[in-house]
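Researcher: Sequence recovery benchmark, item below. Answer with residues only.
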């Protein structure tokens, strides 16, 4: 089925050098058979190597590169119910950190979201350098975040901004 395009950040035309003419500076149409590691990198494990077991969210899966694949121009990130390295689930986690930085722009993605409970797919942005300190002080923009259980919401995706004043961790 068709994915859905979610959210974008428009350029503020009062800022010098910013125009209403868009120029494509980065894209990935997933036309190759493998993940383009000049654009993407994997985050592997449970986050414990960063002192963030469960990646700071209490996530139950172990991230593996094998759970991401491309077929017919579609990137698939598969969550599996399997025991691996002490976790009961596996999935994949991809990011563009240190592969490209953008200050202003329009960000689009087309995604098909899972309907299974307990999933939490997201398309989000964080700064490459956290100059104001760790999360949430330097900010996070969730362009699309989908909590895969109806007990938390209506089942609809969210767009959220996190910072030191507004966040789910007491702000």
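Model:
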């Amino acid at each position: 089925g068709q994915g859905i395009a979610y959210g974008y950040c428009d350029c503020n035309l009062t800022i010098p050098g910013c125009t209403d003419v868009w120029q494509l500076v980065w894209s990935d149409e997933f036309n190759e058979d493998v993940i383009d590691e000049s654009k993407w990198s994997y985050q592997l494990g449970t986050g414990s190597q960063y002192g963030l077991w469960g990646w700071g969210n209490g996530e139950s899966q172990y991230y593996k590169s094998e759970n991401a694949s491309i077929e017919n121009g579609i990137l698939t990130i598969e969550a599996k119910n399997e025991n691996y390295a002490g976790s009961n689930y596996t999935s994949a986690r991809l990011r563009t950190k240190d592969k490209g930085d953008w200050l202003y722009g329009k960000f689009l993605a087309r995604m098909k979201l899972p309907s299974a409970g307990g999933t939490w797919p997201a398309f989000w942005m964080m700064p490459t350098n956290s100059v104001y300190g760790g999360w949430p002080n330097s900010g996070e923009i969730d362009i699309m975040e989908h909590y895969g259980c109806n007990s938390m919401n209506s089942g609809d995706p969210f767009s959220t901004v996190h910072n030191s004043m507004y966040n789910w961790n007491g702000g």
